[in-house]
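Repro case for the chain-ordering regression, as requested:
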Amino acid sequence: MKRRTVFKAIAGALSVGMLAAGMASASAQTKVGFVYVGPIGDHGWTYRHDLGRLAIEKEFGDKVKTTYVESVKEGPDSERVIRQLASTGHDLIFTTSFGFMNPTIKVAKRFPNVKFEHATGYKQADNVATYSARFYEGRYIAGVIAGKISKANKIGYVASFPIPEVVRGINAFLLGARSVNPDMSISVVWVNSWYDPGKEGDAAKALIDQGADIITQHTDSPAPLQVAENRGVKGFGQASDMEHFAPKAQLSAIIDDWNPYYIERTRAVIDGTWKSQDVWQGLAEGMVRMSPYKNMPADIAKLAKETEEAIRSGKLHPFAGPIKDQSGKVVVEAGKVADAGMLLGMNFYVEGVEGSLPK
Amino acid sequence: MDFVPVILTVITASTPLLFAATGELITEKSGVLNLGVEGMMLVGAIAAFAVASTTGSGLAGIVAGAAAGTAMASVFAFLTLTLLANQVATGLALTIFGIGISALIGASYVGFALEPLPKLAIPVISDIPVIGPILFGQDFLVYLSFVMIIAVAWFLSRTRPGLILKAVGESHDSAHALGYPVIAIRYAAVLFGGAMSGLAGAYLSLAYTPLWAENMTAGRGWIALALVVFATWRPGRVILGAYMFGAITILQLHAQGWGIEVASQFMSMLPYLATILVLVLISRDKTKIRLNAPQCIGKVFHAAH
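-- result from build under test --
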């Protein structure tokens, strides 16, 4: 009896002590969580987000502690992962894929003191901010390069899911290509996955066999570019510089740079100034960058740089009218620019895209 | 449209399935149900990639892939044949283990690029239009897959050891009574299956998409397992199933490129649906099924004395 009382007293003291220590460290350290849709090793989308996480660690040192969960499938599983991060003391959680949108909103309702940043989504809440990059600006530049380089006038696009962001990329690419070569066309293959190297490679092979001589993608592995390198055609890297996978084939790559944004938002949480917002940054703010222009004649590289500068300064807008959809209807008039609503909800192909958009 | 490149792509898409299914056919014919194919493929893939990128030799990579698959299969064999563990549970556990350990080892190889395996063109013969490049302009592993399935078919139907293997799978107690070393034969069959799965994985990481990506088999091991069963354990049907699956996978991508208006999600389903349908239809004969299915598959053998 006496021994048991002694043990209980020690256990009680220890747990109170640990709780106090835990609470003390929790309030001193900001915990930042990351939910990734693919593996860091995809060397594309998720890899760049993880670089953002490492930038936060470098910037804030001991003041933050980061956690990440890789390869979380979009759907019910993601809700479980987000909830787990929220319930284990994380102050800020980045959910880095479109498909995490509804789970993020759901979990955010239950945890009003946790702040969420959802990438590429369109639903906000008091504690949910959204952020996205204007990748379409990079796509337009890539399209300009493709329009000048392609001899077959056919582009092969390895696409993932028919969501507005992907459709926007396809349209921007073709608009850029047609701005220098009105005969360009695009053929799209949907692989229904963000990351499946085998399938992406097969899709690229199919497109090349059908006559495309420029390959570009909205999927996350370097496989399509590798196929392009193998078959002697050119292509564009996605989300990060994929040059060492395709030294002869990569013309340029659209690079996502999340570092400045992630550092800024973490600082806002530490300082207590965090507010929900919807941010859409592009070349001008440095969230989108282009890798060096290679494997092309000097005059085309110059044209690409000029286009980049024009977009950055605001002189050129990729979705400036006149823009016609596939049926020939004018959706953006001459002299006007597509508004944010049309861009965010884009569900039509522009003239010149082959095939019709899956529902 | 030029069909030769399409057929070449189909062959490369079907080769990993053919390798894994060939190995699993022998394993199941001996009466062992090895569900660990997916894990063994992944382990073979990372071993092949790691060795090939460190040594620069594709051949060393191929050997390493087969060796890794065999090593994992030996773990499976030890657990199920010597320790008499449940085959289904052990196979599943090894698949999950294989996925994890390959990801762990592969973490340091992500982002590496390799030259794909060279195509071995046979002079003169490879230049025959159409069949030249298809049959004689492939890389070493594709040739090996052709050779292996033909060798396995011949082994099972025309040789005495093949007959003994089938006997062990049919009725291990009778085979034991006749004096055949049941456990040793099953060990050999499982190790062979592991080696083939390792080669399938090696093909993926050395020739198909020469990079390492976590879980790069994307379910092909499961497809190979299903192929063996739906083909009712007949080598000819296995070849048909593997190539049919590969062909429809590639064709559905082409169909999208041509602008054919079918939902892409349905197109993704099509290879699975079509292969199951065709194999089930052509293998309807109940007698043939009973003739070819190893009766003792999955049953634990315990020498009764």
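Ordering looks correct now. The radius of gyration of chain B is 19 Å.
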